Structures are given as structure tokens and as C-alpha cells.
Amino acid sequence: MALIQLTVLTGCGITGGIRPQAAETSPDVRVVDLFYITDRAPDTAPGQYFSSARGDLSYGISHISIPPGHVMGQHEEPSLLKLEWAHEEAKHINVREVRKLDRDDFTTRLDRAVEASPGNKLMVFVHGYNEEFPEASRMVAQFADDLKFSGPVVLFSWPSQGSLTGYTVDETNAQWAQSHFLEMMSTILEKVPAHSIYLVGHSMGNRIIGNAMITLSGDHLESDLMRFREIIMIAPDIDADVFRKDMAPRLARTGIHITLYASSKDRALLASKAFHGHPRAGDSGEALVVVDGMETIDASNASGGLLGHSYYAEDRRIMEDIFGLLQTGQRADDRFGLEPRDTDQGRYWTFRK
Predict the structure, then answer these.
(1) How far apart are CA 183 and CA 248, in angstroms?
(2) How far apart are CA 115 and CA 138, in angstroms?
(3) Where is pLDDT greater, at 171 or 270?
(4) 272 lies in which domain range?
(5) Alpha-carbon torsion 277, 280, 283, 287, what sign?
(6) Residue 11 has what pLDDT?
């Protein structure tokens, strides 16, 4: 039974080699420069770059191409129904190349990119369960491109197994990776003078962000914490009771704005609930998490692929709401497209129909 439940869980100098995937070139493609930090072991297989095994921290930049005619909220990839077997730049979001850097070169380049951005912005994204490095890179690059985020984006990629049956290993590896994420954020705070830092987590990646930020808040000055403008937690695969009683209040005490997106139609989190025996924080059903110091958005009427888990990158209304949040800093009561709902626990918001 556990195996059946797990099979529907889903994501949720050029040293080191450039290995571009085979692709048809087009002069109209856009290229997103995606910074990455990963604690995956390197992988020599063509097009993989990093494996699902644990490794030391590696740094670099991935160049991700966005095809001409890309539509916001669509993740263009090869389709077996169309007899497409490989990523083609003219049709699909494609990893063009991956460039490995040492830590000093990485922080220097990231520093320059932040300084060149309006408002000295920086986004850090942590992916969820069942993600391989190439797919996580494509999804995050699309997310950043669709949002027209004006600063650099850093992907923290931990050693998810990239398989439907790797859920329990992913849980262990997500916990193992927390210290590396904390080390990464400490380095960024010390070396990169970003004025506005946005943390975005999806699914199991929110465990890494949440626990690390609680630790970070006790180790750094208030002036460092003030540089974090928002923590966006999308479909968090965290025990709802633990989140409500422990993690959320402790995060709220940091003073950082927190927005949680949840859905009652997220089949991946419903499977996680069945597997663990308890609701998840990203499920907006009967256990919807509403706590002081955090804004909860019910995204149940959003589209999010077959399992309803990837709505952050596949539903235009969600993306427009996140766009407004990142661009203007408006709170939920002031963002167009949201309607308030008041409960005994507090206020949350839904999307207008």
C-alpha cells in the first residue's frame, strides 16, 4: 500500500565540463543564466551533470534556453505523443550548458549580478521531491523567466532521487542537506550585498528552508534578517500540526514576510498524507494552516498538471499573484485577484473565480 501511495508522489574558465544537450538552435531563443549550488555528486552521463548521490558542495551557472513563442505557465518539453525524444531549443525549455565554478568565482559573479539588478534583488529557490538536476533547472529557469524577475536566481539542488519510489530516501537527504543550505545562505549574507532576498520553496524543499531559517535567525544579526523580503512556501510537504505549532510561529518571529500556497486538489500531498497518516501544510482541506504572521493562499481552483502539485509554474493566476508579490511587495489584501475568507483561526485568501 505504501508503494502505491508513493507512486503518485511527485515534484513535487569552464572547469568541470560543459555538456550541452543535443539541440536545434534558433536565433529567437532566450537564455536564462541560472546560478546553482548543489550537494549532489557529479554525474558523467551526458545531459545529467549531477546525480542523486550525496556529494560536496558544488557551484556554477546553468544556461537554460526558453523557446520562441513560450507561453507563461507552460513548461515546454518533449512529448511522446508527438514522437519527440530529445529537447530541441526551437520547441522546448533546454539545458544548453552547465558551467562549474569555484566558490570565490561564484560569489564574485553573483555579487556582480545582484549589483547590476534594480533594487539589488536575489531569489533563492529550493526544489522538492522527485527532481533530477536538469529538470529542476528547467523548471526554475521557466519560473524566473515567466515572473520577469529582475535579479539573479540561485537554485539550491539537493540529492533528490528523481524517482517516484525514492520518497523516503528523499526525506532523509532533505534533512541531510539542511546544513549545506545554511552554509550557502551564510556565505550569501557575508559575500553578496543583496538588499532584497526572496526565498522560494516547493514541496519537500520547504523543510530545508524552514528549518535552516529558524537556525539562521539565531545566528545572525537583525540587520541580516531584514534583507530577507519574503519566504514563499509553495505546497509544503510538512506535517500540518508540526508546521502550525512549531515551525510557522518560529519563522514568524523572524519578522520576515511569509506567504504559503496550499491546495485541496494536490494529489501528491494527499498521497503524502496517506503515507504519513497526517495532513500536510500544503493541503488546504480540513487542516488548512492559518496562523498569525503568515498569509495563506488557497490555490485549490488552480491548475497544476496531472497531480495538481506544480501549480506555481503552470497556472497563470498563481504566477501573476507571485509576480505582484515580488514586484510590489503588496500584501494579500491589496493584491488583485484575491478574495479574503475569515475563520476562527484568522484570515486566508482564495483566488477570484
Answers:
(1) 22
(2) 25
(3) 171
(4) 2-351
(5) positive
(6) 45
